[in-house]
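Materials and Methods. Structural model of Ubiquinone biosynthesis O-methyltransferase. The 245-residue sequence of Ubiquinone biosynthesis O-methyltransferase from Novosphingobium anseongense was retrieved and submitted for structure prediction as follows.
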Amino acid sequence: MANATIRPEEAEHFGRLAAEWWNPKGSSAMLHKLNPVRLGFVREAIDTHWHGDSRGLKPLAGKRALDVGCGAGLLCEPLARLGGAVTGVDAAEENVNAAREHAQGSGLAIAYRWGDVGQLGLADFDLVTSMEVIEHVADKPGFVAALAAALKPANGDRGGLMVLSTPNRTPQSRLLLVEGAERLGAIPRGTHHWNDFVTPEELGELLADAGLAMGEPKGIAWSPTKGLHLSDNLALNYIVTAVRR
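The predicted structure was written out as tokens:
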């Protein structure tokens, strides 16, 4: 599906992985390991943004959440369990079909949409997330602008919250994420294109151009003792919040 931000070859690549997306030992195994780390950051960001109780089970109750580049729903389903009315969008129809089937089997009411986020007329979401997606889109400014357009405006309140994660463009990420992880089979070949990675400085500029202020990024690092974990080291991957300025 070719349009403003979707690269057809990227959608096809991830669409081919749809059948294994929920297999923690399959081609998306790394995402299964990454998801709890991202969720920990998202939960803390939610509690901080809306001054919630970190012990509460449904911090998104009464709120609308949008996950863009949702794949087969690895993040959408936990967001729904946190009480959110969740919409997931993906560029690959195969992923959307797999996500719908899995959500139905899990008893979760999640609205899944297939296509380009900028062309679906989505708006007024309290939470907008997009994890490991911006490095795959054709038009990064257009993509960020579409995410911002979907975010609830600040009309006398705090407005919406955005959370993004992406690999950093560093020598370490080229060595470990592209040449290492893909060659060793930890990530499917062709998943990453290092030149498309976005640095925190570049992401901050993209967000500013869309009228958003970026929070302090946290790194997602790996060590033999901790595995994947949040860190001050941004060399491989980072996750960050953004709000309307």
